Structures
1.
Amino acid sequence: MTGNIEPESGTPGPEDLPKLTDRLSPIHRIYVSPLTHRLVPWRIAMLLMWLRSEIRWRISAGYRRDQIEQMRYAYPESVFDDRALERVARRNGFQRGRRAELVWRPWLCGSVPVEGVERIREAQAAGRPVIVALFHMGGFQDAPQSLARAGIDTAIVGSSHYFREPQPGFPGYRDRRYILNGLESDVTIISNDNMVEPVAEALANKQAVMLAWDMHGRHPVHVFGRDVHVQPGIARVAKLHKALVFPLRISPGPGPFGSRITIEEPIDAAEAASWQELLQELVDRQAEALLAWPESIEWAPGRWLLEDPGRGWRPPL
């Protein structure tokens, strides 16, 4: 059984995380222990993740099929033919394993190199609200912590399900650790179902607010030669506050996350004709980064919808 609670504000803290009471298997009990991960250096852990993904690719037809289907969901044939897509799908397995393992190593949080921090500082010094655009690829899960370690007071908008409807069993423990990694790095978490006032307050306090656009939604954007449907919240918030939107470009880099973050030149929401135009420009920018490192995408079917979900549809967790 997993206990649910209602966070008292739009910026929940560790005390708002629900108590998890689900029983774990003996293997999972060992895996969630910090000692287990302390005993295995991260380089060895990454080698084990790579070996695991390679073995699964070689011996499991079901795993290969699932990986290829995921990547085809993200990349149409106009981007990658079948042979090229197989290579991307094979490498993606390791990227997913890397992210899953690093959730349990909070002492490595904030280790992704960040370039272009001065752009955010200059914008805030000029009195402009700052929004940081995140795409789920590479070491994205460490982006808020790495910005915070680089000296940027950072807030991130996250799903309320972490606090209201945690997943049962092991995934619930993993999600809890993921949220704690941010909170323990002095990152402000803003719940997405109560975000209007907390986001406005964070921007007024010169925090950089991080949002993602690559989530299931009803607004159509054009990417890789086709229309997909995503959440427009980031563009609407930026237009409302006349913010500067800084896309994060995540590329291969050193260290345990294997990533490097570059804070790109901003998109000025005040100059965009509409939030729709702003969102499409943001999509175009970050699609370029994804094509440069295609295997690093996180769970492709979760990034967008290929068909209009229709009226009355509500996004998943």
Note: The first helix runs from residue 26 to 31.
2.
Amino acid sequence: MPKRAGVSRGVTVDKWHQLQALSLETKLGLSVLVLAVIAGFITWRVSERRAATVHDDRRNDVSGPVESDAPSPTRYPIADRLRSYPVLYSILGNRWINKEELTHPAESKSALARWLRIDGYEVRPSMLDRLLVMFESRSGMGERRRSIKGDPLSLAATMTELHFAAWLEANGFPFELTKTGPDFKVQLMEDSWLEIEVTTPRQDVWFADIFDRLMFIKRVSGFSLSFGFYREDIPEDGSVIDELEPPEAEKLVLNVVNEALTTIASAEGASTRESPSFEQRCPEIGLRATWWNDGSQYMSGATGPTSPNYWEIWQRIQNSAVQKAKKQLPPDQTRGLLIGADQLNNGDRGYWADWVHDQPDEYVPIQWDVIPPQIKYVIIYKVSWSKLEPHCALLLVNEESPFPHVDGFEEFQRKLFPIRYRTVPSKFTVWASTDRCTDRKWF
């Protein structure tokens, strides 16, 4: 009996353990089964929802299916073109690309975004990318790279800075790209440095900006355009266009752009210059624009009877000099101011340069007594998009300034500005970088 009872008890215990193990396996299996059923249900619901969304989108949007209840935003591709300029691509990055691809190019604050989209402008980002490679490891370049991405209005000045830097390097003048104060410290002799600030007058920044925006609209729409700035249209109590703050200028420019885009979208049929599709007026900045649709895609600029005038450029130089003297060019030593000429209105620039070139002193549009005296040298610099030298640069020297010449200036002038620009005996000292400055093609 004890033996049988022991055997019987042992068998019972083993079976009990087997039943417990079987129970655990069953529980795990059931749990897995339940989870699988839940996952399958969720997957089925998601699939049903997607199918319904795609069906609705296909029914309401002929452009194709999207996986969202909201309509897909219009995109303006830019990434493929930007990849042609690897350094620029790395500086701007995917976030900048995505933002610009969701912004109509004519409404974007970035001139660079328009450069990348306008056929014929490829030389501009190409030159900028080339210059960024040249000075990639140079001290002070971090600030320049950040401004290209984050400060659209500084693009013209940054482009001019880097192009001027390449010209200096090609001619053997060491320099520093500074982080504070004037943009350049140029070494003329072993212990002699000339500090130069680079700028572009505000009016010319937004003039170039609106020019590129309107040209983009013209090319995309196929319309023809004639426009110009007429100072006589500006009300006497209106804003001083030379002193418009960036937010105010941007607001005015966007109003012009939005009006053009909206009106073109609803314009119907052919039209002529004599009987245009529509006309725009923006008296705050003296803008007149005429749009017509004759298939020619013509574009021209025009100016009013009182503009340009031969003092216009000097007024902009004066405004820039006074502004820069307050911060970057204090009156403690001889300094230079470089004005980027790419954005200067061609008519104004040509008119002014003609008078400087060959008129008697009493008619020359240069007035040094309105320029802070520490600014002894003014350089007007037009970038060449194909060469590492200016298309034309003029050097104006203020011989009336009480500040002395910087040691080594004569060699600087001789190498970079070898041609005397004025053709008559004169109290004004003006030098040119190349014969191109006198053949009028730089206008």
Note: The two ends are 124 Å apart (CA to CA).
3.
Amino acid sequence: MSCIKKLTGRVLVLLLTLSLVFVLSSCGEEPEPEPVIQVPYYIGICLASSEAETSEMYKNEIAKKFAALETEEAAFRIEVLYSEKDHLKQEHNVNQLIAEGMDCVFIEPVEASTVSTFHDQIMESGGTFGMIIGMEPTAEALDENYVFCFDFAAGMETEVQQAVEKAADLILPKPEVPEEGEEADK
């Protein structure tokens, strides 16, 4: 009988030791991080002409600014359409970009008189934002929530920087701010 008690005691000690080793070895492991999902944001650029040097400069500058904003969580997909100095084609191109679900459309108007048409197209889209580049339209062509224009007189780089920053602010999700008393993740 004492042999069975000794054997049972040893088995019990062995099981407790193994359990303790297992528990301690799993304590130091970090949980697997959640996979990061990169969300694509769609940017449309509707330029006046494929042959105009300024149109190409706008295209390159906008692409460069959005590339600098890419992160593990956000990628920007850019589609460029040229209007070849035809305001009807430009109107069609803007409609096409909106129909494709662009989050934001940059428009270099062929004519100043057509900007109000773009305002109407953007407002009717129900979710696309518009950035007018290359000219300063009248105040009626703008909207404080959806259609924007930037400091054209400050130069192309400044104008594009302001427009891209505004677009990113509008379409990218805002980081969650911890409520008072909560600690932020470090």
Note: The first strand starts at residue 39 and ends at 47.
